[in-house]
Amino acid sequence: MEKVFKGRVWKMGDDIDTDTIIPGRRGTIPEMKEMGKYAFELLRPEFASESKDGDIIVGGKNFGCGFSREQAASVIAINGIKVVIAKSFARIFFRNAFNKGLILIESDGVQDACKDGDTMEVELNKCIRVNGQEFPVKKIPDNLLQIVEDGGLIESIKKRNRALKQREVN
Amino acid sequence: MANTLVEKILMKNTGIKHVEVGDIVISHPDMFMVHDIYTPYLYETLKEMETEKLDDPDKVTIMFDHCLPTAVAKNDSVHYDAGINLSKKYGIKKVHIGEGICHTLMHEYHYAKPGTVVTATDSHTTTYGGGGCFCTGIGTAEMGAALTTGELWFKIPSAIKVILKGKFKKGVYAKDLIETILGDIRSDGAQYKSIEFTGEGVKNISMESRYTICNMGLEAGAKCALFPADEKTAEYFDMDLKDIEWVKPDEDAKYERTLEYDLGDIQPSLSCPQGVDNVHGIDEVKGKKVQEVYIGSCTNGSIEDLGVAANILKNKKIAPYMKLIVVPASNTIFKQAIELGYIQTFIEAGGVISHPSCALCCGMPYGLLSDDEAILSTANRNFIGRMGTKKSLIYLGSPAIAAVTALNGEISDPREYLEAEA
User: Fold this and answer.
1) Does B52 touch chain A (CB under 8 A)?
2) What chain A residue is nearest to B150 in terms of C-alpha separation?
3) Do B49 and A158 lie within an 8 Å CB cutoff?
4) What are the pLDDT digits (tens) for A34-93?
5) Which end of chain A is more exposed for a tag (fewer CB within 10 A), N or C?
6) Using CB atoms, which residue from A106, A144, A162 is nearest to B22?
7) Is A58 helix (H, G, I), strand (E, B) or coil?
8) Which residues of B touch A107 (CB under 8 A)?
9) What angle do CA B167, B241, B174 make, to 5 degrees?
10) Does B269-421 match B25-155 at the fold level?
11) Would you say B14 and B25 are in contact if contact means Cβ atoms under 8 Å apart?
12) CATH architecture for residues B157-266
């Protein structure tokens, strides 16, 4: 899969909760594409219309806190975001994000080196580059990246099952 | 390098020699449990994933305890049927229908062994940490994936060390200790962390009590709560201590926080309406009138718990108009309680005995409260509306507090009673 992501920085603060990501009252919209239009609507109303594939969200500590609703991860992914960087992530959001095809990177420091709108480059398992500075990042296990590449957990398992079946047929 | 207990267990399971907090490791859990609330969703998830066979059906158990016997005709039978279908389609043979509460059965059947990795579709999966098992709850999508592949990833959590000294005084129990801890660190105090108990006080705590403590560790947000394995653990699991001696944190393991409790200083304590961490000592709460008392649940439905309550209720009558409901956590415990005369005692005292299940803890089949009614429950949660209407009040306390409260019709201090009896 892609190892390098380059895009504009959407800078956000600490404790971005699931209601900030997608307000509870939008959670019943049946189509994810439609729901995605309301991502961050209270904090960054321009996010859904202006974000482009490959853009990177940079948050503070405890990103994704609040409810366990999986849609919080889905509405970010549906807007073309592949990578979210934060000082720390809420536990359930962390699992949901990878399972919905988002890559999360924990980094404390990069927040001070960039501002909203800057261009950032993320090289997976290596570093984050922004404004001439480099910040090393931890390795993400291949299995997790595989889930992301397959388009989320359910798709990933489905793909695996189909491959196994194909092998049996052959 | 020195490691915490959760690190040691995950290192053993994954074969990784060096881990740090925040690392992601891919484990092969030794046992998976799904209970009847989640059977329909798991069945659907596996269908969506096009899973036709599980990695290892012998590592899977299905337990029917929440929706059995059916309380809501159509609804509950869907859960029952889905469980049976899961078992038939995927060849899952460890099926336990109406034998008791899943978390109790998990250690009674020795499914959750010391030093192993276990996961289940329930938040109180932390319970088996009492036997030195790393265990934590997951959702149905992840359960579907894990059952298919046999793999599940975990992030190595930071850990809180709880050093225990001494022993409980008369009338004070495991429930009082964990509630005291909850009051101190609050409901988010251990968010995503491992709570690890250690110290010379551990040996004075029974296996039943360790399970009580780890069951409620979850209420502090913990990913897991663990006791080290010792002689008591070896005896409970009928294992050689030598084989499980390693199940303890290393001496110099790094903890982000250390707490210390002298068991002799712990007072009878209660979680008051409506928050598990709204903890008050008995002196602040006694005298409060309650209309119902529940002794049971995966927290406090063990033979030890029933014994504590029966000892207080023997040859006594509960207060007029009091509703006392006693639910042994499993059939094994039920049978023991019959043999030991506890059930006779509860009936003669005026109690109602119900079949082993999750019962009224999760407000499912019976014993529901109406507005302004208060209950003293030995269960683990007092969320608003959990056991009845939104205006009902839930106090959580030990089986001893429950028993004396049933006698007096108001929240009472078991120490006063036990002193008077002595």
Assistant:
1) yes
2) A157
3) yes
4) 999 999 999 999 999 999 999 999 999 999 987 777 889 999 999 999 999 999 998 889
5) C
6) A106
7) strand
8) none
9) 25
10) yes
11) yes
12) 3-Layer(aba) Sandwich (3.40)
Distance, in Å, from the CA atom of B213 to the CA atom of B218, rounded to the nearest integer, reads 9
Report the gap between the CA of B330 and the closest CA in chain A (Å). Answer: 31
Distance from C-alpha of B326 to C-alpha of B376, rounded to nearest angstrom: 12
Domains by residue range for chain A, with CATH: 4-139 (3.20.19.10)
Q: Flag whether pLDDT at B419 surpasses 80.
A: no
Average pLDDT over residues A95-110: 93
Is 80 exceeded by the pLDDT of residue B365?
A: no
What was the pLDDT predicted at B185?
A: 95
What's the residue count for chain A? 170
Contact (CB<8Å) A143/B45: no
Contact (CB, 8 A) for B205 and B117? no
Taken as a whole, chain B contains a residue count of 422
Mean pLDDT of B84-103: 97
The answer to whether the Cα torsion of B108, B114, B118, B121 is positive or negative is positive
Residue range B43-68: mean pLDDT, rounded: 95
Q: Is the pLDDT of residue B399 over 70?
A: yes
Structure tokens at A136: 């090393």
Q: Report the percentage of chain B scoring pLDDT > 70.
A: 100
Query: What ipTM does this complex have?
Result: 0.84
The Cα B261–Cα B259 span in angstroms is 7
Q: Are B166 and B61 in contact (CB under 8 A)?
A: no
Per-residue three-class SS string for B343-403: HHHHHHHCCEECCCCCHHHHCCCCCCECCCCEEEECCCCCCCCCCECCCCEEEECCHHHHH
Question: Is the CB of B256 inside 8 Å of chain A's CB atoms?
Answer: no
Q: For residue B422, what pLDDT is reported?
A: 61
- The CATH class of B25-155 is alpha beta
**Can you tell me the distance from the alpha carbon of B352 to that of B334, in angstroms, rounded to the nearest whole number?**
14
Q: Which residues of B109-143 are buried (b: 16+ CB within 10 A; e: fewer)?
A: bebbbbbbbbbbbbebbbbbbbbbbbbbbbbbbbb
| CATH code linked to domain B269-421 | 3.30.499.10
A136-163 per-residue burial string, b: 16 or more CB within 10 A, e: under 16:
ebeebeeebbebbbbebbbebbbbbbee
The structure tokens listed for B378 are 């030995």
Other beta carbons less than 10 A from residue B189's beta carbon:
20
Burial of A109 (0-12, 13-18, 19+ CB in 10 A): exposed
Helices (H), A5-152: 18-21, 32-36, 47-50, 71-78, 91-99, 110-113, 142-150
Q: Domain ranges in chain B? A: 25-155, 157-266, 269-421
Rounded to a whole number, what is the distance in Å from the CA of B50 to chain A's nearest CA? 6
Mean pLDDT (chain B, rounded):
95
Query: What pLDDT score does B74 carry?
Result: 76
pTM, entire model = 0.92
